[in-house]
Amino acid sequence: MFRGFYTAASGMLTQQRRTEMLANNMANANTPGFKADQTAISSFSDMLLQRIDSQNIPTENGFRIPVNETVGSISTGVYLQEAMPLYTQGDLNETGLATDLSLENGNLPDGSALFFTVAGEDGNTKYTRNGNFTLDSQGYLTSASGLYVLDTNGNRIQPGSESFTVNDEGYLTNAAGNTTRIGVAYAETTENLLKQGDGLFATEDNTALQNGYGNVAFRIHQGFLERSNVDTSRTMTDMMASYRTFEANQKVLQAYDRSMEKAVNEVGRLG
């Protein structure tokens, strides 16, 4: 009986965490470059149930030996194993602002991704798909969270003013005619990427990703932003399904509670 409490409660906790993740996706549906999270729900190891019984031996003394009869397996509940970002391309939205940049993926291999490179506050390179850049007071190109955008050599980019152009190949030319190339990183596999706040990603051991130029085909668009890849209709449907599953587990928990109450107050009562 108590096992049922744990199983139903684990289902409720799992669906609560899944609902929180879906709500976060919905809240970032209009965040440029946001990558929606997906969940992987797994089951705890099943338990094998056996019944203790005895068997008569046809002897003069009627000898009995204990035996175990297999009843079957029972689930011990589920848990939210991990949340995995979905790295598919979002739609491009034209803004007309010179500081807005977007990456358009070419034919990337499955499981790979492209990112702009920015300088993290901890000194390590971070990666983002949010090209909603701006200029700081010194004319440096910075991300929406205030981090410096880097070129292919890992240096800060200083256009000086918004009078600059960026071509499809990532070359930025400012008003003085100076040219630098915007840093684009290529992750051959996204399995070792960690999702951080403010639309940033980092590698597990902070090792730098390889340069994207020359490895895969892509284009950079000036005056465009990549939209979030959150499917709002499906997210709302998944949230309703998660809530219904939570509610079903709640009903099971209440049924166990009533059964325990009856067992304590009525079944065990002496006449």
Quick description:
Belongs to the flagella basal body rod proteins family. By secondary structure, this protein is α+β, with helices and mostly antiparallel strands.
- By secondary-structure content and strand pairing, the structural class works out as alpha+beta
Low-confidence stretches: none
Radius of gyration: 29 Å
Strand order of the largest sheet: 15-16-8-7-14-17
Name the overall outline: elongated
Let me know the number of strands.
Answer: 19
Bin the helical content.
Answer: 10-25%
Instruction: Report the end-to-end length measured between terminal Cα atoms.
Output: 25 Å
Give a structural overview.
With 271 residues, this protein is an alpha+beta fold. It folds into two domains: 119 residues, no CATH class; 140 residues, no CATH class. Strands 15-16-8-7-14-17 form a six-stranded antiparallel beta sheet, with no helix packed on it. A hairpin with a 5-residue loop joins strand 9 and strand 10. Helix 1 runs antiparallel to helix 2. The longest helix is centred in the C-terminal third of the chain and has 36 residues. It is elongated and about 110 Å long. The mean pLDDT is 88.
Please write out the topology.
Blueprint: H1 2-27, E1 37-43, E2 47-56, E3 64-74, E4 78-85, E5 92-94, E6 101-105, E7 113-119, E8 125-128, E9 134-135, E10 141-142, E11 165-166, E12 171-173, E13 179-181, E14 184-187, E15 193-195, E16 200-203, E17 210-211, E18 218-222, E19 224-226, H2 232-267
Antiparallel strand pairs: 1-4, 2-3, 5-19, 6-18, 7-8, 7-14, 8-16, 9-10, 11-12, 12-13, 14-17, 15-16
Helix pairs in contact: 1-2
